Amino acid sequence: MTIVASGPPVSTSAAVTDKGVGPHLRAWRERRRISQLELALRADSSARHISFIETGRSRPSEEMVLRLAEHLDVPVRERNALLLAAGYAPRFPETPLNDPALDGLRDGMERLIQGYEPYPALVVDAGYTVVAANRGIAMLLEGVPEKLMTPAPNAMRLTLHPEGLAPRIRNLREWRGHLLAQMERDIALQRSDRLRALYEEVSAYPVPADAPGDEPEEPVPYFALPMRIEHEGRILSFVSSISTFNTPMDVTVAELAIETFLPADAATTKYLHTLLG
What we know:
- GO terms for molecular function: DNA binding.
- By secondary structure, the chain is an alpha+beta fold.
- The chain is 42% helix and 11% strand.
- The chain has 2 domains: 22-85, 434 Repressor (Amino-terminal Domain) (Orthogonal Bundle), CATH 1.10.260.40; 100-276, 2-Layer Sandwich (Beta-Lactamase), CATH 3.30.450.
- It has 12 helices and 5 strands.
- A 5-stranded antiparallel beta sheet has the order 2-1-5-4-3.
- A hairpin with a 2-residue loop joins strand 3 (227-231) and strand 4.
- Helix 2 (36-42) packs across helix 3.
């Protein structure tokens, strides 16, 4: 497995402004559809105090900003932005993935995805740049043009590009819809210009009129939406699962996601063990 440097930071629109932290906190509360009273109860405060913070009549303490951000499930990068808007220093560092301080993290991820073989697994950052992958992923990417692999492969681009995996995915329209919906949710959460540009790019890729439809030739009762992909004349079926780190204290770590692909049928399991076992 190779750890590569991730792309540029996923900047957000929660920049420091002269309006203070109040409007940003209100925007996050409204995004979560939580009332001032409910947030106050969760944060051991009062609705009046929350109102004063949001309107700028009261400046919250550093700990209050962090407490509200925790109860609003604000991403770590955005918590730094909230602290800056409130006049405090950022609390969470952003350590490059190849920094020696993250040696333990990289080793752990390597063991994890290698231990998942022969099934595919990869690690991506917040912009879907692939920072690590195992042999199962390499197998699926066989034959993909080098231009899509360098300088740093992007999972969404690799999957949806007409020269990538898209022509091999037997339920392309359905899987494409799933991936685009996932990106839309991430954009709403991260408010990232970089991520929005990626979404506009991949959503504009042409989908052939004769692209595989939403149903397999012989319907199978899958327990989750599968990705059905062709490999050397065989149709392999996978369902994916995404894991993130609990209570991260670093922006880089908070934005990493490990995606694993579980065989959705016995034939796929047998084939992978025969090929890579």
